[in-house]
Amino acid sequence: MSDQPGPSPITSPITSPLHARHEALGARLSEFGGWLMPLEYAAGTVREHTAVREAVGLFDVSHLGKVAVRGPGAVALVDSCLTADLGRIGAGQAQYSLCCDDATGGIVDDLIAYRRADDDVLLVPNAANSAEVARRLRTAAAERAPEVEVLDLHRDLVVLAVQGPRSDAVLAGVGLPAGHEYLSFVEAVPGAAPGVGEVVVCRTGYTGERGYELLAAAADAEALWDALVAAGEPHGLLPAGLGARDTLRTEMGYALHGQDIGPEVTPLEARLGWAVGWSKPAFWGREVLLAAREAGASRLLRGLVASGRGIPRPHMRVLTAADGLDGAVVGELTSGTFSPTLRRGVGLALLDASVPVGAEVVVDVRGRPEPFTVTTPPFVPSSVREATA
To answer: Domains in the chain, please, with CATH?
Structure first.
């Protein structure tokens, strides 16, 4: 999960607790979901991307939402609203889930749910959608579970992502626990970061690499960042911006809300049916999604890999291959980039369901017919579950 830079001019963006650190590093800043965040540092997006794949990168993703749902019945309330079956995980575990519109089944947001206790769930939605997710949950709580509180902690917590094959070593360098199972988390006080209080160490991420996301008090942000940078220096750590985060997630085929998924796209079209607890008695959008599953999706989110030198970008047309740009339109790019790992263009596209994996198609790249192959991501192997080197 992440938010792309918006095209609108920055008026009064929120700055991260680490804004001064980013400025000192010469970061190029851009607006992400109403926050002014680093797009890239002096090293540049490609080097930052490569550091994450080969060594370790450090991201500030404090723009992500943080919504706490607490009180008697909190787990049951969240479970009755979001798509994934929260009963399948216990305290100390995390789960990818979707907030869908009850009337249309469209994806209002995708998020991670951290089950801290029976009556305490922390949700991390996308920045631009955090307030809307909280609003919907508050409405549900008022109607069905008045003892449950829905708290917006968006600016109270910092989120740092330590991603890459050397991430365990970096955490060990600041005295934080590492090595726990993927989609689990532990709470600890770092042993080598003076002045930093409790940190939630989550085995989650958005890069496809082994790594962690750290949630801490905003007041502790600078001390924790400095400690991680120092501990990471011998391991080749580079601060990485949200530009590298986007190329990394695209190589994995991870959907980005606002581009690949949104209120006009259902979990079935996005091939996210695995994040839906179909046997649950209730979740937002259940009835319309069950009907849609029975009918079958008319379009699907697929991967595209360039056969030549074409670099795909969002909104480019996808056509049948036989007649070049005169072919029938079969879909549209939702995400597209140059893959630093593969050294070729890759992208995600919503395609007619009749277009099979393995098909050759043409993408209209600024008026040129560029050949692509339809595939199923990830485009490069995922290492999220691999043991540390």
So the answer is: 14-63+156-252 (3.30.1360.120), 67-106+114-142 (3.30.70.1400), 298-375 (2.40.30.110)
